Automatic annotation (TrEMBL):
<protein>
    <recommendedName>
        <fullName>Cupin type-2 domain-containing protein</fullName>
    </recommendedName>
</protein>
<dbReference type="InterPro" id="IPR011051">
    <property type="entry name" value="RmlC_Cupin_sf"/>
</dbReference>
<feature type="domain" description="Cupin type-2">
    <location>
        <begin position="68"/>
        <end position="132"/>
    </location>
</feature>
<feature type="domain" description="Cupin type-2">
    <location>
        <begin position="237"/>
        <end position="293"/>
    </location>
</feature>
<dbReference type="InterPro" id="IPR052538">
    <property type="entry name" value="Flavonoid_dioxygenase-like"/>
</dbReference>
<dbReference type="InterPro" id="IPR014710">
    <property type="entry name" value="RmlC-like_jellyroll"/>
</dbReference>
<dbReference type="InterPro" id="IPR013096">
    <property type="entry name" value="Cupin_2"/>
</dbReference>
<dbReference type="Pfam" id="PF07883">
    <property type="entry name" value="Cupin_2"/>
</dbReference>
Length: 308
């Protein structure tokens, strides 16, 4: 396969992907649970892992979830950690343990890392749809284990993620609940995270990894790239994905002095496999923000160099 074809085969464009309203068969017949999934890398929490149109996952999956106001996702748990990153709207996430639920409302560019085996649900209590990126820390996660699905429990209990009346707590409350403290350590708000500006001319905001929530599977960072800033080709020993949030970025691969590149925009994804030399550059007048997912929990070992 040519370098160009291989490169093209690792890009997903938001505009040409489809949302799947039937990605989660367990929701069929429960309109209150309706949500749509756009699979970008692997299949995520959906059992539709035969979808060959997605990018092949290694250490993580990435998908977009769309949820309309008033809809929720029943409380469930995974054997592996799962991150929610909000693209638009406000998402309320609840964690449950022994009938007590802690809730937090997340806005654009906020993230929660749903810890391994922690029971979690979410809902859209706002007035606009929510779009979020879901990233599971395994290439092929097991199906979720539902704990308070409306098919097994009352509609009220399911909608409250398993909390009886009076047993829902806010993350901001002063309750001395171990669950509240655990959640507080796993919420990353954009406005609370410092941006580290690098000599190469762009900023890194660490969500998961050194300086953010402790990474146990993969790291997640935001890159803030001013106009006309780019980096020389670099190479990782694991895969790396970019999900563009704002602006348009030129991404490229380099092999034996030959470069192939393309500009991608909001909600587009590129997955660069381990061992592939690659680079990025902002050729436009508007700044770029993108979410970068790196397929390891090991600390950063890349020294970025500005493109001359
Ligand atoms: Fe989940």
């Amino acid at each position: 396969m040519s370098l160009q074809d291989d490169f093209q085969g690792h890009i997903q464009r938001y505009a040409t992907r489809q949302f799947d309203w039937n990605a989660f068969p367990s929701n069929a017949g429960y309109p209150e649970l309706a949500r749509a999934q756009m699979r970008m890398i692997g299949s995520g929490g959906s059992p539709k892992n035969g979808d060959t149109t997605t990018l092949r996952p290694e250490h993580f999956t990435m998908s977009l979830i769309y949820k309309e106001p008033g809809k929720f996702a029943a409380c469930h748990a995974h054997e592996i950690e799962e991150a929610f990153f909000i693209l638009s709207g406000v998402l309320t996430v609840g964690w449950e343990s022994e009938g007590e639920v802690v809730e937090v409302a997340l806005g654009p560019k906020d993230m929660i890392l749903n810890a391994r085996d922690i029971a979690h649900g979410f809902r859209n209590s706002g007035i606009e749809p929510v779009m979020l990126s879901v990233m599971v820390g395994a290439g092929k996660p097991l199906p979720p284990r539902y704990l308070y699905h409306p098919k097994d429990t009352s509609a009220e209990l399911a909608a409250a993620f398993g909390a009886q009346p009076g047993h829902t707590h806010l993350l901001t409350s002063a309750d001395e609940l171990p669950l509240r403290e655990l959640m507080a350590r796993n919420v990353i708000r954009y406005d609370n995270q410092k941006t580290h500006w690098l000599p190469a001319g762009f900023g890194r905001k660490i969500y998961v990894g050194e300086g953010g929530v402790k990474a146990t599977t993969v790291r997640k960072e935001m890159f803030l790239i001013p106009p006309f800033v780019g980096v020389r080709p670099y190479c990782r020993d694991v895969e790396e994905a970019f999900l563009v949030l704002e602006g348009h970025i030129t991404v490229g691969w380099e092999e034996d002095g030959i470069c192939v590149e393309q500009q991608i925009g909001p909600r587009d994804v590129i997955l660069t496999p381990a061992g592939r030399r690659h680079y990025f550059r902002n050729n436009e007048l508007t700044p770029v923000t993108l979410l970068c997912v790196i397929g390891t929990a090991q600390p950063n070992d890349i020294q970025f160099e500005a493109q001359s």
